[in-house]
Automatic annotation (TrEMBL), chain A:
<feature type="transmembrane region" description="Helical">
    <location>
        <begin position="303"/>
        <end position="325"/>
    </location>
</feature>
<feature type="transmembrane region" description="Helical">
    <location>
        <begin position="140"/>
        <end position="161"/>
    </location>
</feature>
<feature type="transmembrane region" description="Helical">
    <location>
        <begin position="111"/>
        <end position="133"/>
    </location>
</feature>
<dbReference type="InterPro" id="IPR037294">
    <property type="entry name" value="ABC_BtuC-like"/>
</dbReference>
<keyword id="KW-0472">Membrane</keyword>
<protein>
    <submittedName>
        <fullName>Iron complex transport system permease protein</fullName>
    </submittedName>
</protein>
<feature type="transmembrane region" description="Helical">
    <location>
        <begin position="262"/>
        <end position="291"/>
    </location>
</feature>
<comment type="similarity">
    <text>Belongs to the binding-protein-dependent transport system permease family. FecCD subfamily.</text>
</comment>
<feature type="transmembrane region" description="Helical">
    <location>
        <begin position="21"/>
        <end position="41"/>
    </location>
</feature>
Automatic annotation (TrEMBL), chain B:
<keyword id="KW-0547">Nucleotide-binding</keyword>
<keyword id="KW-0813">Transport</keyword>
<dbReference type="GO" id="GO:0005524">
    <property type="term" value="F:ATP binding"/>
</dbReference>
<protein>
    <submittedName>
        <fullName>Iron complex transport system ATP-binding protein</fullName>
    </submittedName>
</protein>
<comment type="similarity">
    <text>Belongs to the ABC transporter superfamily.</text>
</comment>
<dbReference type="Pfam" id="PF00005">
    <property type="entry name" value="ABC_tran"/>
</dbReference>
<keyword id="KW-1278">Translocase</keyword>
<dbReference type="InterPro" id="IPR017871">
    <property type="entry name" value="ABC_transporter-like_CS"/>
</dbReference>
<dbReference type="InterPro" id="IPR003593">
    <property type="entry name" value="AAA+_ATPase"/>
</dbReference>
Amino acid sequence: MSAEPLSLPTAARPAVAGLSLLAALAVAAFLGALAIGPFAIGPGRVLAVLWDAASGVPAGSGLLRERIIIMDVRLPRAVLGALVGAGTAVAGAMMQGVFRNALADPGLVGVAPGAALAAVAWVVFGGVLGALLPQSVQLLGLPLAAFLGGLATTLLIGRLATRDGRTSVATLLFAGLALGALASAGTGVMVFMASEQQTREFLFWTLGSLGGATWIKVGLAAPFIIALVVASPWLARGLDALALGEAEAFHVGIPVERLKRLAIIGVAAGVGASVAAAGVVGFIGLVVPHLARLALGPAHRVLLPASALLGAAVLLGADILARMLAAPAELPLGVVTALVGAPFFLWLLLRRRAFVG
Amino acid sequence: MYEAQEARVTASGRVLLAGVSLALRPGAVTVLVGPNGAGKSTLLKALSGEQRLAGGRVRLDGADIHAMAPAALARRRAVLPQAAEVAFAFSVAEVVAVGLMGGAPGGAQAASRIDRLLRRVDLSGFAERRYDSLSGGERQRVQLARVLAQLECGEAAKPAYLFLDEPTASLDLAHQLTVLRLARAHADAGGGVLAVLHDLNLAAMVADRMVVLAHGGIVAEGPAAEVLTDDVLHRAFGVKVRVGVAPPGPFVLPQNVLPA
């Protein structure tokens, strides 16, 4: 690695430096998520506990309490938060690439609510089918249902907003808004008909939370999101070319329809797995890719990994706030992201009116 | 040889291209002229593979281009689009890098290559500028640099074809000539060129062969001196013109619009 920087051209250096910085930020947020809470644990002790656990030291005397809190409560929550943040942000960046517009956020245009609706439907009807299905199928059914819900919504939005090969951004946003509201209403109907803890359940699905994080949830979300993040760079060149226009992308040799299909499947995977694990957390998919573009440019080779790292950091930061602001109660995660994200969204609209022409 | 055989294009019942046959040869600059709505851009799109045909075929060295993988086709032909907006704030270098066909755009070699291409289109020092901050003419030349990058990445052994859709539309006189000179150089190096041009004088200057299109069909084709006649232009454009010859080539002075 030591010889590497010498061979890097000037243009690549800020990208490498920027990605390193974002990685450091994500690690810091991750450690913060383990350290901060009603029972504060110093960073030194956090690292000591992680080291003990990783090296197989039996949970013994000194740090027993810290170890239980970190390994059983905070670590699954932080890992899930990092996954959800990365998956949501990469899905956002990818969807914006496909629709060639920075406002095409899966949360904003109804994809995430669509995924939530499908997930709730699975919870409700999967419970009814419970006797028939083995438990593993029931568990895996949740992210799969959310994935299919997200996929169906994305395809529907694309169909509604595209006419004669041209995508209308205004239609995309308005149709997405309507579909999102409809899906949330459907979610509400099902939750209030089927659940005993209606309000809590409804808040989870519409505003998101990492409160129920378990290793099982981590295990269910991880394959989808890791696959998305790892595979996304292969679409980078195609998405860059697509920014020049669909015809231009075809001219430089991109199989445009296949690229769009793959990207939409990726968006649905990222959103579906995130929503199944943590509900609909708004604005991450909008704000994070935009900040990453401002800092490191729009080239997807850098933007996609940058969005993953920054998404993880921002979501973990938001979860820390969600746990701290109203302690000992917890705010829904979406409340915190909306507090920051909604003003940002307005600023974006006012600054770049041309986005919605 | 890159050829359209009886290419037919329709859009919502209207015939845009009524079975046009046209062969592009390596080493030659073919220029398409004709009035608005004659089907020039449609023919170019049909040849590039962007436009699906309602009938006929487009073949490259005998192979149907619609059966070719987009990447394989892209190694043999590049297209300079008419109007090019780029989503997001890409830099000039990043736009040109899109033409580098999977050659690592981050590499040092690529950076010097991009600089060299930008010099060819008279945009030295523009690499780090934002594309969306440029004027229409500058954008057009960035796109040209991208297209040249794509041609360089093509198959060296086989001729590559360059399609230009009104490449001079937003350019000043000097840069119009730059574009046409680059097109000429590509043909002289053994490639094929197809350009849609509005300016008949520029067309006459650069064309080895001119094709006059009207109402979705070819009205006349051949060397500029044979095609640019009072009669052909009258029939195609509905304008009374007199073609004169000021040494060394033909030029056109429009006089007045023909009463319908």
